[in-house]
Amino acid sequence: MSELRSALDALAADDLFELTAGQVLDRTAVLVQLGNRVAAELTRTVRHAETTQAAEHDGIKTMRSWLIGHARLAPNDASKVVRAGRALEHFPVLAAGFADGHVTAVQFGVVADEVGARERGLAAEQGIDLSAFDQDWAVVAAGSRHESLVSAVQAFEAALDPDGPEPDPTEGRTFTMVKHADGSMTGRFELDAAGAEKAQAAIESIVQADRPKGDERTRTQQNADAFVQLCDNQLAAGNLPMLRTVKPHVVVTIDLHDLVDPATGPGAARTGFGATISAARARYLACDGSISRIVMSPDGVPLDLGRDHRVVTPGLRRAVERRDESCVFTGCHAPSHWCDVHHLVHWVHGGETDLDNSALLCERHHTKVHHGFRVERDPGGRWRTWRPDGTEILLGPLL
Length: 399
What we know:
Family: Belongs to the Rv1128c/1148c/1588c/1702c/1945/3466 family.
Pfam families: DUF222 (PF02720), HNH (PF01844)
Protein name: HNH endonuclease
GO molecular function, one term: endonuclease activity
Organism: Modestobacter marinus
Helix content: 40-55%
Largest sheet: 3 strands, antiparallel
Strand order of the largest sheet: 3-4-5
Shape: elongated
């Protein structure tokens, strides 16, 4: 183990800028293979630890729990390592490819996850020799794209139980959301093929409909924006199930003096699910929302609750949609139902809530305008957009 650590230290000390492009790619390929070998050895070691109950040495009942608590693996990743370890003895050819680095941990996991004790039992009952599949899957894993192995394993499962009941797709669906201290969120989901097709169709429709000129977002950023837009559309539609007697909506609480003070920094407002956001972000959300006044006593007890006031009335929104038709930010044509009604001069600073002071902006460009960009309607009725440095965004001829 000390020699392995020394070798890794030596690799980390290499100056990659001294390598040619070909050398960098060769190095990458070797590191991928070595990473596979390390993952295989981890899997073998975890399996040995499980069979010998080594986790009891640290007072832990299972290796899954030990990996989560001591190695800080995510619960799902810990489960995958344990399942892979249990599959090693049943698929020796695939395991050998894993050990020499030609099969990845994810590829071996495909077989370990999908061909477990139940499937092996069905194969034995039907006289199916798994060794032939073991050899074929090893060849596919080492020489084809990852999706090819997935398809091969799925075909085996379908043939194994062709007349069995159609599984409930919801049983395998998971969607985990983890909220961080700053209110941001990371997540992970797993969907069956039908559910994945629905999700991909919904996300792709928004991604492909929102491709303004000069868009430099990565595909993952486009997907994330589309996911938020999908939620925004559904919330705006107003047909989601009631949440504790009210329609689900975004809630932001902020002191009035923080809301109107343009110099207020971060941490001035709090969302309904407990995140802390800046006053600037609160002003952005307040551009097109409902406002409720709550008068508090010095000791924090509510004294007076004012009724909700809709900043932008339905009638005004219809008028703005009729005039603008889509997002007015130069180069963007996001449809009106994706857009907020933006106050050119914010209402907290005396701006009127009327047609002349309103503009349709999609979620992404509404954020841009609240962070330095500016939109303005010229006397001829044409919308123009300026960058934070004062230069105008102009659409040139297509090349």
